[in-house]
Amino acid sequence: MKNSEITEAINYHESTKHSYVSVRTSGHVLDWANKPHPFKVYEDLPRMSLPRDISLPTKPVFESFTQQPSSEKSLDLKTLASILYFTGGITRVVKYGMETVYFRAAPATGALYPIELYVVAGDVDGLEPGVYHFDPKAFCLTVLRRGDFRGFLSKHSNSAVAECSAAVVFTSMAWRNAWKYRERSYRHWFWDSGVMAANMLLTCNSFDLRCRLLTGFVDHEVNMLLGVDGVREAAVLVAAVGNSDKHPDETRPDVIEPKTRPLSRHEKRYPLIERMHMASCLYSVEELRSWLAAAAEPTPLPKPREHGQALNPSAEDGAPLWEVILRRGSTRKFSRTPITYDAFSTIVRKTFADVPTDYLGPVVSLFVIVNDVDGVEPGAYMVYDGTLVTVKKGQFRRVSGYLCLEQRLGEDAAAVFFPMAPLMNLLSRMGNRGYRVAQLEGGIRAGLMYLASYGLGVGATGLTFYDDDVKQFFTPFSDDLENMIVLAVGKPAYRARSGKIILDADKCL
């Protein structure tokens, strides 16, 4: 299978669409006794505790949407610990009967948390060069390799890695999410890593550290570096963090096969997911360079004939970023009361903050059903060049609920957002890997929207959707687009408690 054979991505996308019929005929029943363990545990490998007095990202949340990296600021272990915590650390521990749920700093589909974080460190004060796995439950690093492998990773991804203090590699453990969502869960690899990447980006911004998100890499080589098989667990994203003037060599690592505890008594594999992932892999440095050149081209997004109602974002800076991340949750019930136009405008603007990536973004357009926003007539809109362009006017609460798999959250929200991508254009330029980019950017934009919403005291929650019905509803603007993800925002119908910094989860039980 080749990345250029885009029938694979088309077939996967079409085969995993939700419809009114499909959700009623799946026959899928969850096997609760076989639910995957939420943490990856290594056997017989050394571990080192991370500092408990982590640095806090204290910059106001809305200032943190802008990157202002300092070329002179070095990355130390306390700051790295903070970046890992506010990206994937534990903020709440809740017991439901016999089950314990460890909620994290960033949301995840079904609270299953399939994304793991690895650190490829080369120039971090207080940390020896090496490859490490982050364990959020024990708040420690498991040592996988000793030595500086940034040069090897840079060769097989991007030159930015050779110039960073450390790279953080995101992987997805396929079964942890497929247990519930089956074939469609491949989309979630990128939604869930995307919202985590949004947290990481803002946390780095708060510390004035450079953070660049890299979607292009030679998959087999990166997976080999981490000691993962590329099927049951596979790399999905590389983040280059910080600056370094120590230029590493390209030493090739030995193959390792670290022993880990099983996630479940048995795992079910999904050939459609594995086929799609392998078809979107890059297999050589030459193929990577060609892909990066194609990814650097602009993505044509729909342009309405005229502008609409101008957005009017708030000028407030907001609470410190760390407080907002701890405050964030996924709203479980909206109050059906309006949000202000200032808040709505700020959420939209911050959702499309600049994101430093190895492809030229954005690759999504934002559509929204407005149910109850002060100063905006209820209806369906497209966001274009800082304005709201009318798609159709009317009260569409029941429609927004229906589009979100008939969930009440979609109906009760003040506004429901739909990031949509020109998928065929992305596939024609980037191959099957363009599918990863589209889904990832949907996740990143959703993550930014979460943080902007909670920075304003507005609730938010991610939802799934009836694919083709969403596309049809926003026609003709959406004729060449496919929906990636949904985020509903509004005032919660209850007062939620903020999370807290939990660095030893076992003590919370």
Automatic annotation (TrEMBL):
Domain Nitroreductase as annotated: residue spans: 75-242, 325-473
InterPro entries given in the database record: Nitroreductase (IPR029479), Nitroreductase-like (IPR000415), SagB-type_dehydrogenase (IPR020051)
GO molecular function, one term: oxidoreductase activity
Domain of life: Archaea
A Pfam family annotated for this UniProt entry: Nitroreductase
Name listed for the protein in its UniProt record: SagB/ThcOx family dehydrogenase
